[in-house]
Amino acid sequence: MTREEFDQFCGSLKASDNVVQWGNSSVWKVGGKIFAICSIWGEGEEQKISFKCSDLAYEVLCEQDGIVPAPYLARAKWVQLVDAAAMTDEDIRLHITDAYDIIRAKLTKAQRSELGL
């Protein structure tokens, strides 16, 4: 998945916002809380996608080749795809949707109402 495809998909999720920060990372948020990031982190300077996971998904995904606990965010159950072949684009979209849903559910009722969620 290219960064453009990543941005297009994340932008299709209701009330999502994009901010470019942390050295040109594409950071996607809902209600001001991050659910997915496309960045160039660490050695090799290749594009990497990171997203929030459920506890179970975190455990399962971290066992797969090409997927690691996300730097700085692993304690919050985030993973990072360090190999573009680690997951299909369809699976990336499914996991990003799950990440969005996890973060959206943590918003207050007032925030969800304000955002039309």
UniProtKB/TrEMBL annotation:
Molecular function as annotated in GO: DNA binding
Taxonomy, superkingdom: Bacteria
Gene3D superfamilies cross-referenced by the UniProt entry: 3.90.1150.30
Pfam families: YjbR
The entry's keywords: DNA-binding
PANTHER family (UniProt xref): CYTOPLASMIC PROTEIN (PTHR35145:SF1), CYTOPLASMIC PROTEIN-RELATED (PTHR35145)
Protein name as it appears in the record: MmcQ/YjbR family DNA-binding protein
